[in-house]
């Protein structure tokens, strides 16, 4: 198990290094930020001075090496817009993104698990059909449209909730509901098909035959064994949600990581873009490590393979 | 073909059939939209701004789905937008599919360093959220129709490459491949004539599932202003523009989104069914 995890850790580090390289190349393609940073009518000399100050006059490979050395120590340079460390600018937005990601994920896991189990238990009835239709619709609805519809209903028509912003706990409800709907739909579908597979297994028949209570069979023999695909999916969804859902954050003016990266891209603020994508990629890799660990706990066969 | 039809009309196949029918309607609408007697989707009319939908039991009326903030007819814009959406998404899926399939073939067949490098690249790309990657590339290259198609193809090749590679590994040592090798067939010939037909099925399944993702991604990029550029109508852009007028004109954001949802739904339905019909093993993500 330890060796398996070390291997995965190494793969993760290589992936992060690759991400950093790609981001460096792309952000240099974005163009010259000095034009945007200086007031209109700045002289050529002023621009050259600023470029030298930012290190943009060095050869590309030197910029890359400086960048790598800095990145390893969490130093991405100062943000061009805010004139303070870029990593700080990104990390400040992390609580907002995490609040949104975890509420959406929590919502999705609870409702998805309930809906998926109900659909599997009441196979072939109206319950299953209703869950499946709702899940199909939930997966097909683009999040930003759902967000707009929810604003239309709850903020404009009913006036119950704020249209956006980050002022009160109430402003979390609509964005979390928006992102949570897709999560619920994915989890429900996955859990249902996983459970239907397990229900057919021999060990479930044995458990029933030896007279265990239906609830015990369901929790210990069915639910536990259909969790692996759900764990994988939760990992993927958590990675995507923690990566900042750019569009949802835009719809609700939510001050998260995704939004700050997009704003930095528009302002050609390279350090913030680099720090932001780096934070996201690292989060993603760490979550995947957790998922691998969980596999080991859920399925002893993986643990022993080592 | 008869089997295919039978599977579509029996059991839960009706869902796939519904998806297929919706897609056919959409494609026909996109293809023959200009022949319909609809107002010009880009013509503004400030005297008819934000007209509420006139669709009722009595008939269509002048603007069945209403007009937007510039007085443009929303129904014509949705029909025109479907051309753009389907063209961009279709081209991206085909391009990404060809690229991913070729790289997956090479990776699985030749193995070694090439395989390791390509699969690392896949891991790296999967660690960056799709939307963010697409945004960065579009921002760097500038938004244009060609760049948009290129970016969407670039973000979707990974899934094809992975699945095709796995499939190649499974057939690479089979007897028919070994005998082809023994009689001296060249590597490109073996790959294209003997292995490719065996990996096409999963590639087609991935393509359908990928089509839905690409459509949503394109709409998202257009929503953020980095996708299809005006005056070309696009569903994502219509949603972004209608957002400002959400409190006075609900129809501007409602109908383009509905079109988007129906499109994604029909592609998903067909894709799910195709996957179960052609290759149930792909179900495990």
Q: Give the integer mean of the pLDDT values of chain B.
A: 82
Computed Rg of chain A: 24 Å
How many β strands of chain A by DSSP? 0
Classify the beta-strand content of chain B into a percent band.
under 5%
- Tell me the overall shape of chain B: elongated
Number of helices of chain B: 10
Note the total helix count of chain A.
15
Terminal Cα span of chain A = 4 Å
Domain module tally of chain B = 1
The CATH homologous superfamily of chain B is called MetI-like
Provide the structure class of chain B: mainly alpha
Give the fraction of residues assigned to helices of chain A. over 70%
Separation of termini of chain B? 28 Å
The major beta sheet of chain A can be summarized as: none
Mean pLDDT across every amino acid position of chain A:
82
Low-confidence sequence ranges of chain B? none
The CATH class of chain B, by name, is Mainly Alpha
Assembly category: heterodimer
What structural class do you assign from the helix and strand content of chain A?
Answer: mainly alpha
Please name the defining characteristics of this protein.
heterodimer, A: 306 residues, mainly alpha, 77% helix, 0% strand, B: 285 residues, MetI-like fold, elongated
Characterise the protein shown here.
The complex is a heterodimer of chains A (306) and B (285). Chain A is mostly helical and 306 residues long. Chain A is built from 15 helices and no strands. The longest helix of chain A is centred in the middle third of the chain and has 36 residues, at 86-121. The relative contact order of chain A is 0.15. The model of chain A has no long low-confidence stretch (mean pLDDT 82). Chain B is an all-alpha fold and 285 residues long. Chain B has one domain (68-282): MetI-like fold. Chain B contains 10 helices and no strands. Chain B has helices at 2-9, 13-32, 74-110, 112-126, 130-141, 145-171, 175-182, 187-223, 235-243, 250-278. In chain B, helix 4 (112-126) packs across helix 6. The chains are: A mainly alpha (306), B mainly alpha (285). The interface between A and B is large, with 51 and 40 residues.
């Amino acid at each position: 198990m330890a060796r398996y995890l070390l291997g995965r850790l190494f793969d993760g580090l290589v992936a992060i290094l690759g991400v950093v390289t790609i981001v460096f190349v792309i952000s240099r393609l974005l163009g010259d930020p000095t034009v945007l940073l200086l007031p209109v009518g700045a002289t050529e000399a002023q621009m050259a001075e600023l470029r030298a100050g930012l290190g943009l006059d060095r050869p590309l490979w030197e910029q890359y090496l400086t960048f790598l050395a800095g990145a390893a120590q969490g130093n991405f340079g100062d943000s061009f817009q805010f004139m303070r460390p870029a990593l700080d600018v990104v990390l400040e937005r992390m609580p907002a993104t995490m609040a949104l990601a975890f509420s959406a994920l929590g919502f999705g896991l609870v409702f998805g698990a309930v809906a998926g189990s109900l659909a599997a238990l009441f196979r072939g009835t109206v319950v299953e059909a209703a869950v499946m239709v709702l899940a199909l619709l939930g997966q097909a609805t683009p999040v930003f449209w759902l967000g707009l519809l929810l604003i239309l209903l709850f903020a404009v028509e009913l006036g119950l909730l704020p249209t956006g912003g980050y002022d009160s706990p109430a402003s979390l409800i609509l964005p979390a509901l928006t992102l949570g709907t897709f999560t619920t739909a994915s989890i429900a579908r996955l859990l249902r098909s996983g459970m239907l597979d397990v229900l057919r297994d021999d060990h479930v028949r044995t458990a029933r035959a030896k007279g265990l209570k239906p609830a015990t069979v369901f929790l210990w023999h069915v639910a536990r064994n259909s969790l692996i695909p759900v764990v994988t999916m939760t990992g993927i969804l958590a990675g995507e949600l923690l990566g900042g859902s750019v569009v949802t954050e835009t719809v609700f003016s939510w001050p998260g990581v995704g939004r700050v990266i997009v704003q930095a891209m528009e302002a050609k603020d390279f350090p913030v873009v680099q720090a932001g994508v780096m934070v996201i990629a690292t989060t993603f890799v760490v979550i995947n490590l957790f998922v691998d660990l969980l596999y080991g706990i859920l399925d002893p066969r993986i643990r022993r393979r080592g | 073909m008869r089997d295919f039809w039978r599977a579509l009309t029996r059991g839960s196949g009706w869902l796939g059939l519904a998806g297929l029918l919706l897609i056919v309607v959409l494609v026909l609408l996109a293809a023959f939209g200009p022949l319909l007697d609809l107002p010009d989707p880009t013509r503004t009319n400030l005297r008819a701004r934000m007209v509420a939908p006139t669709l009722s039991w009595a008939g269509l009326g002048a603007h069945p789905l209403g007009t937007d903030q510039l007085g443009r007819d929303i129904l014509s814009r949705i029909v025109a937008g479907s051309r753009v959406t389907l063209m961009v998404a279709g081209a991206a899926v085909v391009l990404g599919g060809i690229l991913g399939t070729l790289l997956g073939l090479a990776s699985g067949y030749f193995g070694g360093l090439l395989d390791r490098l390509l699969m690392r690249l896949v891991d790296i790309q999967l660690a960056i959220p799709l939307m963010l990657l697409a945004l960065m590339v579009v921002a760097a290259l500038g938004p244009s129709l060609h760049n948009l198609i290129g970016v969407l193809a670039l973000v979707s090749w990974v899934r094809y490459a992975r699945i095709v590679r796995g499939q190649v590994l499974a057939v690479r040592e089979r007897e028919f491949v070994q005998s082809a090798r023994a009689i001296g067939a060249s590597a490109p010939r073996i790959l294209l004539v003997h292995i490719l037909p065996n990996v096409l099925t999963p590639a087609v399944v991935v393509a359908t599932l990928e089509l839905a993702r690409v459509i949503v991604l394109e709409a998202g990029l257009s929503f953020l202003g980095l996708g299809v550029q005006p005056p070309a109508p696009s569903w994502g852009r219509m949603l972004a523009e209608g957002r400002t007028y959400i409190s006075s004109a609900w129809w501007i954001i409602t109908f383009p989104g509905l079109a988007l949802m129906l499109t994604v739904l029909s592609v998903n339905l067909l894709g799910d069914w195709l996957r179960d019909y052609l290759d149930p093993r792909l179900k495990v993500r």
